[in-house]
Amino acid sequence: MLPHPPTQPVDQSKVAALEDTPVLGFWDNNSNLDVSDLGFGVWNYWDLGGATEGTIPPQACIDLQESSVDMNQMRKSLVKVWTESPWRWDPTCNDSAYQDQSHFAVPPNETTSAQFQNSRDRLERVVSEKLEQPSRDRVLAILLSQCRETATANQVSSSFPTVDVLDTLVHIFLAAQACQVDSWLHLPTLKLEKQCPHWIAMAAAHGGAMTPIPTLRRFGMAVMEAVRK
What we know:
mainly alpha, extended, transcription, metal-binding, nucleus, zinc
């Protein structure tokens, strides 16, 4: 058997002293939390040149008192987000996907704006192939077959996005797919001209919905409704 370790007598006076000492002594009500009595003058003699390089100048700092947010206004804004959210839209008996068919037409000034041109210039194409005019015409034919009114069909025919715009929207969708870890597309073997018109329309619709331009986003949503029928 192993020998027992030697035992030492416990000093009861030390135990009593520990019990009387608070664990969080700094939280004592008698503690002075005023740091004005502490002296930090030695900091003036330290070499802080390396630490102060690249810091924000004092005049660039924002005055918190002047820029303080009105909490009441913030609460009203938060309530407004939920009460006026587009996701709270309740359709009526007259609302249908056919009302969005006018969004098939995209004014030319929307696709020639600086915002759209900037998005096109910054786009990194993951597929070298470009969309051709016949593919654009087949997509247009699908959408025209969904138009109920002749006036809407004429408007769509005259203001439908060009092949260059559709090509940009399709490649926006493909670039987004390339960033997904679970993409269902094999981009190295993808051939745009061998895809069916419904697939081209779907890709352009999702690309339009990803753009920051409201007109193209409405175009994308409307095309989604038309293609899935």
